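Figure 3 (text version): structure tokens given as input.
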């Protein structure tokens, strides 16, 4: 690729680029010297599972990797002990070392669904931040002042509202910045909510005799509801480790408008390619459903295989075009049913088809729930003790519920 083509590929879908001229200069120098750029992305292991929202950054890492650059997947096992204050109206509870270690182990397997394990450096920031020691931490803290910290919107709002800010929360962006110093990062990637943290690294690097890193942010991905940021707690997520059929079905549930953002952020297609597909849909040459099927197959292939994506698409088509359901393709969910039975709304929550009993009851009352192909509209409906396994459908999603009868 020419430098211009590389720039277009690497900045596709980015929101903030600080600064574009620096990106060009670094790419030109890399091409001239044959030395790859060091591209850093940090992930605090705060939860065991990654979802497609996390992969927006992973895919941007892959783009740098595709062009031969050195990508560092940095697991924040030290910074995870502090807790990122980004977007928080109060101090985040710290994780235990055991929780961090367990979550970090799952991360290492999930990221290689997109990244090339042979070309990816996996590192842990406890390696240098622990060694920094108390004296080093004090010297690091001396490189930034409180006024600069209060420029951060989260901190400013809490300070003005009289809400407490723990002193250790100021250490988080400094620790993240020191990661960039230690790794001599040329580029740091993050979500738009990380812009302040990333710029702290850019600010302090010259004090260590280093060229400031380029900061590039990617947008936060809306979840399946098209409104809120993708989040497991909101139930609007697509998990990286979900079965192919479940992943495909969830992707088919997004709106036609949201589809284009997913095309841009969750595939390797260029902006020109995405625009071309959208133009075909607008002109009527391609049906929106077919474009969405192509998107769902492309994403499912990335995390499973082409064969698994094709099978998922065929099962989806059979269900919604011909009214067929193949139990073999459904995700199994085990539900314990006590002697008194269990509310259907609770089963929906346990199956991951609703985020709360209230939402589940609302879906039932609206006629969006089927048990063994029969619509259920009574929000108080129950699954009786001793019932056989059954197929549970909510909109475009379906699972096989394996009933485990609790002892009387």
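Below: residues designed for each position.
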């Amino acid at each position: 690729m020419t430098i211009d083509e590389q720039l277009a590929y690497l900045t596709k879908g980015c929101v903030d680029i600080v600064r574009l001229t620096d990106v060009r200069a670094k790419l030109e120098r890399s091409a001239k010297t044959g030395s790859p750029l060091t591209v850093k992305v940090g992930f605090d292991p705060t939860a065991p599972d990654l979802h497609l929202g996390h992969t927006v950054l992973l895919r941007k890492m892959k783009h740098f990797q595709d062009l031969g650059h050195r990508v560092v997947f940095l697991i924040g096992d030290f910074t995870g002990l502090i807790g990122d204050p980004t977007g928080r109206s109060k101090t985040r509870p710290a994780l235990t070392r055991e929780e961090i270690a367990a979550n970090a182990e799952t991360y290492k397997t999930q990221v290689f669904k997109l990244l090339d394990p042979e070309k990816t450096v996996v590192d842990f920031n406890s390696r240098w931040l622990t060694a920094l020691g108390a004296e080093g931490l004090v010297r690091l803290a001396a490189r930034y002042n409180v006024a600069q910290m209060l420029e951060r919107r989260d901190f400013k709002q809490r300070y003005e509202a009289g809400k407490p800010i723990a002193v250790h929360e100021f250490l988080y962006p400094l620790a993240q910045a020191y990661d960039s110093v230690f790794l001599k990062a040329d580029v740091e990637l993050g979500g738009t909510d990380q812009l302040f943290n990333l710029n702290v690294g850019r600010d302090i690097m010259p004090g260590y005799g280093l060229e400031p890193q380029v900061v590039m942010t990617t947008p936060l991905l809306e979840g399946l509801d098209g409104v809120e940021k993708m989040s497991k707690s909101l139930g609007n997520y697509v998990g990286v480790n979900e079965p192919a059929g479940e992943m495909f079905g969830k992707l088919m549930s997004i709106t036609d408008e949201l589809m284009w953002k997913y095309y841009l952020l969750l595939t390797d297609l260029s902006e020109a390619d995405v625009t071309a597909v959208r133009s075909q849909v607008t002109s009527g040459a391609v049906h929106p459903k077919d474009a969405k099927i192509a998107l769902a197959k492309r994403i499912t292939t990335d995390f499973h295989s082409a064969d698994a994506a094709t099978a998922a698409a065929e099962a989806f088509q059979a269900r919604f075009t011909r009214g067929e359901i193949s139990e073999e393709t459904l995700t199994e969910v085990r539900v314990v049913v006590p002697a008194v039975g269990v509310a259907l709304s609770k089963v929906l929550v346990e199956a991951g088809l609703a985020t709360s009993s209230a939402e589940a009851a609302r879906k039932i009352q609206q006629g969006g729930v089927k048990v063994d192909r029969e619509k259920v509209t009574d929000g108080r409906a129950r699954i009786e003790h001793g019932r056989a396994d059954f197929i549970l459908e909510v909109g475009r999603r379906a699972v096989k519920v394996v009933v485990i009868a609790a002892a009387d």
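The chain has three domains: 3-218, 244-324, 330-405.
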